[in-house]
Amino acid sequence: MQILLVEDDYALAQGLQQALQDEGFVVNSVASGEAAIYLVQNETPDMLILDIGLPDISGLAVLQKIRPGHPALPVLLLTARDRVEDKVLGLDSGADDYLSKPFDVNELVARIRAVERRLGGASGNQLTIGPVTLDSRAQTVQLDGQPLELSRREFMLLKVMMENSGRILSREKLEARLYQWNDDISSNAVEVHIHHLRKKLPTNFIKTVRGVGYTVRKA
Questions:
Q1: What predicted TM-score, i.e. pTM, was given to this entire model?
Q2: Which of 7, 18, 127, 139 has CB atoms 3.0–4.6 Å from 13's, for a disulfide?
Q3: Sequential pLDDT tens for the chain (219 residues)
């Protein structure tokens, strides 16, 4: 899952970015509302985590501007305001969820996982396709009940493909969900990860659609 974090507190943004990255999410961060609006309109993420108190325009104004063009984009508001009236205003403005500062990172992760399950159509933390079972919470993969040793990138790639089973994903699409903006990406990084995954998974579990991308069969 690719997340855009909009938070002007640098230390908090860096801490959240690292914590969420450790949980297997790809997180890019900006510090202003205008930057958030531009990115959502041009490089729409899978989820938006949006602070209300931004230095240029409020998070609520950001939400009101992006919501008409992106009605299905999950948005979680972060704010120091904890009055019921503020929560109602945020939800009425189009937010899907609301978290008051200070908060426990584990609670934030749990709420993101709930969005992730909804987007992927899964009812729990596990995805199973044929003999392969992936647990997004435990960050483990099993083949016929036996654990598979995967690198972090291999796990993230397999997770994206299993969540989008039946869809063809281009290399560019996969790169966007594996790497953050400041990551150094080699030109054949996705192909290398696919190559290593294929050695560990059943034959034809990951299929190449020549000139288009890659796909995993439907569950």
A1: 0.71
A2: 7
A3: 889 999 999 999 999 999 998 888 889 999 999 999 999 998 888 899 999 989 999 999 999 999 999 988 999 999 876 667 777 777 778 888 888 888 999 999 998 988 877 776 554 678 899 999 998 878 899 999 999 999 888 998 998 899 888 889 998 888 887 887 767 667 788 899 999 999 999 999 999 999 899 999 876
